[in-house]
Every structure is written in structure tokens, then in C-alpha cells.
């Protein structure tokens, strides 16, 4: 059974850093996109960024570009979200999710990977990130 599990959330002061991990298991070999998403209270879930497992190409949404970095360790089946310069508005439950690339996968092909919530098939339970002094 394919699954992803997030870890690494916690409480951090504004301007601080945190690294989240997304560990995957039960997947067959192939090309996948792994996305990071977040959901703040009373808000819709939104994309943060994503990475393609074959070449490590990434895409970031404008609100986090330059502050967040996504990387992958294929040997460990783990994707990381390094978050620097955290702001109170980054407070949310953070999720990772994955979807297998296919020729008919619907996403903006000018980007390395999809960022829409509805595109992703397998989701983790989420990890809370709170940015507060």
C-alpha cells in the first residue's frame, strides 16, 4: 500500500528555520511528482512547491520562492522541505503528496511538476508548523 508520512513540524520563532521530511513507502519504481501543500485554519489547502523524482526539478509558489527549498534523497525515498525565514503567515498543517507522472497527467507543462491539490493521489496525515514568538 503506497503511503507518505510527514515529520519535522513544530513551533519556531519568526525568522527561524525548520526542515520537514516526507518518507515514501510501498511505491513501485517510476517517475513521480512529490508536492508539498499547507492548510491554515479556515483556509483552503494550497500548494507550496513540488519536485520531480527523476531529475530533481522543482517548482515553488511565489509566496515561498527564495525562502523554501525542496530536495530529494532517492536512496532514502525521502523528500525534504527546508523552510527559512519563516513568517507567522506560514503557520499551517503541512502535507506532502505524490502522483505518478503519466502522458495524460493534467498540469502546466511549463513547470517541472504539478501544484494543484486535485492532481495528487496519495496524501500524508500532515504535520503542524507554528510560527510565533
Q: What does the overall shape look like?
A: globular
Question: How many strands appear in the DSSP assignment?
Answer: 11
Following the backbone from N to C, one meets helices and strands in this order, namely EEEEEEEEEEE
Q: What is the mean pLDDT? A: 95
Helix content: under 10%
Strand content: over 45%
Structural class comes to: mainly beta
Low-confidence stretches: none
Distance between the termini: 40 Å
The radius of gyration over CA amounts to 14 Å
How is the main sheet built?
Answer: 7 strands, mixed
Tally of separate helices: 0
Write the layout of secondary structure elements.
Layout: E1 3-7, E2 10-12, E3 18-25, E4 32-39, E5 46-52, E6 58-60, E7 68-73, E8 78-83, E9 92-100, E10 122-123, E11 127-131
Parallel strand pairs: 2-11
Antiparallel strand pairs: 1-3, 3-8, 4-5, 4-9, 5-6, 7-8, 9-10, 9-11
Detailed description of the structure:
There is one protein chain. By secondary structure, this protein is mainly beta. It is built from no helices and eleven strands. The protein has strands at 3-7, 10-12, 18-25, 32-39, 46-52, 58-60, 68-73, 78-83, 92-100, 122-123, 127-131. The strands form two sheets. Strands 2, 4, 5, 6, 9, 10 and 11 form a seven-stranded mixed sheet that branches. Strand 4 (32-39) and strand 5 form a beta hairpin. The radius of gyration is 14 Å and the shape is globular. The model has no long low-confidence stretch (mean pLDDT 95).
Amino acid at each position: 500500500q503506497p503511503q507518505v508520512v510527514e515529520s519535522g513540524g513544530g513551533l519556531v520563532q519568526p525568522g527561524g528555520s525548520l526542515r520537514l521530511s516526507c518518507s515514501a513507502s510501498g511505491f513501485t519504481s517510476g517517475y513521480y511528482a512529490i508536492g508539498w501543500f499547507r492548510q491554515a485554519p479556515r483556509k483552503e489547502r494550497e500548494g507550496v512547491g513540488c519536485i520531480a523524482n527523476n531529475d530533481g526539478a522543482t517548482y515553488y509558489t511565489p509566496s515561498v520562492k527564495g525562502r523554501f527549498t525542496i530536495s530529494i534523497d532517492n536512496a532514502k525515498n525521502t523528500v525534504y522541505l527546508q523552510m527559512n525565514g519563516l513568517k507567522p503567515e506560514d503557520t499551517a498543517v503541512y502535507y506532502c503528496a505524490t502522483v505518478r507522472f503519466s502522458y495524460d497527467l493534467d498540469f502546466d507543462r511549463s513547470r517541472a511538476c504539478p501544484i494543484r491539490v486535485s492532481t495528487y493521489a496519495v496524501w500524508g496525515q500532515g504535520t503542524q508548523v507554528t510560527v510565533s514568538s
